[in-house]
Write a structure and sequence with these properties.
Layout: H1 2-26, H2 36-55, H3 59-69, H4 75-82, E1 88-94, E2 103-109, H5 127-140, E3 143-149, H6 151-157, H7 159-173, E4 180-184, E5 194-197, H8 205-225, H9 234-237, H10 243-252, H11 263-266, H12 272-282, H13 285-293, H14 295-309
Helix pairs in contact: 1-2, 5-8, 6-7, 13-14
């Protein structure tokens, strides 16, 4: 009963606030009374403006808000322990969206008897906090390991497969070997029972620990490489696609450690004018005649067409 009364009071107050807002919109508050239809129209305008504002929030911001609401606990570890597992490893990678350098993965087996406070997704922690937690994790966990896959391999097999390879190599280094894996949103080619967890680095303490270890290690790599490639600002952007990094790519071109298969890298030195000139050159009668007269060029053209038409083919 009290809840119903409170709800009605809340609705009444909300309605009055909206009506006042409508009067303010038309600049008529305290001067004349509006019809209910006019008030509802003004209210609808206000609602639409609010919805537009909500839609303008980026996906990254919305995801960050979601991650902050999630609780990082031992829930998934306890579920694995309940099945008989003794050595539960959390796995995570960092650097997946970077334009430069390796993707780095870590695997961590936490000690059930020692609680490390403050574990959560490394993206939600300030750098100083990560630097404090990383040695604490390494000191008090049962086992930990790090592996990385460099930019050359990423370009060859794609970033998703490179991330899986880095995680697998990290698990294979663990001593003792784990008997259950908790992984952030995917599976790897390992015989061990696995539990993929969406947003696992924000929900599982073991995955969060791996996330912190991997993040601290990769950040160290970027700081070490910054003096080698000073024009890209690696110490600050960690190889990610910041405006300054993109500007440096356009001015200086990519380094040998940039991921050449990533669009911001391979098109960094290509201006729109150059693209237009290339397309016009492709369509020129002279080039078409040269291709028609050349068996080698025609063979390459046919193979390219076949590669794109084969069902399931990887062009």
């Amino acid at each position: 009963m009290e809840a119903a009364v409170a709800c009605r009071v809340h609705s009444s107050l909300t309605r009055k606030l909206l009506q006042n807002r409508a009067l303010q919109v038309f600049g008529l508050q305290g001067k004349l009374a509006l019809s209910p239809q006019a008030v509802m129209s003004a209210t609808s305008i206000s609602d639409r403006d609010e919805n537009v504002t909500k839609r303008e929030v980026s996906k990254a911001t919305l995801k960050l808000r979601l991650l902050k609401k999630l609780r990082c606990t031992l829930k998934f570890e306890k579920q694995a322990w309940a099945t008989g597992a003794k050595l539960v490893a959390g796995l995570d990678e960092v650097g997946r969206g970077s334009l430069f350098g390796p993707v780095v993965a870590a695997a961590v087996i936490l000690d059930p008897g020692y609680r490390i406070r403050g574990l959560r997704d490394s993206k939600l922690l300030p750098a100083e906090r990560r630097e404090t937690l990383a040695p604490r994790i390494r000191e008090h966990c049962i086992a930990w390991a790090i592996a990385s896959v460099d930019a050359t391999i990423i370009d060859e097999i794609n970033i998703y497969q490179a991330s899986r390879r880095a995680m697998l190599e990290a698990v294979q280094q663990l001593t003792p070997a784990p008997d259950h894996l908790l992984i952030d949103a995917l599976r790897i080619a390992h015989d061990c029972p696995q539990t993929p967890i969406i947003h696992g680095d924000a929900r599982s303490a073991s995955i969060a620990a791996a996330s912190i270890i991997a993040k601290v290690e990769r950040d160290r790599m970027m700081r070490d490489l910054d003096p080698v490639y000073p024009v890209y600002g690696l110490a600050s952007n960690k190889g990610y696609s910041t405006p300054k990094h993109i500007a440096s790519l356009r001015e200086h071109g990519p380094s040998p450690l940039h991921r050449q298969s990533f669009a911001p890298v391979w098109n960094a030195n290509v201006s729109p004018q150059e693209i237009m000139e290339f397309m016009q050159e492709e369509d020129s009668p002279e080039l078409q005649q040269e291709e028609a007269d050349s068996p080698e060029l025609q063979e390459l053209s046919d193979e390219s067409c076949e590669a794109t038409l084969v069902p399931g083919g990887n062009a």
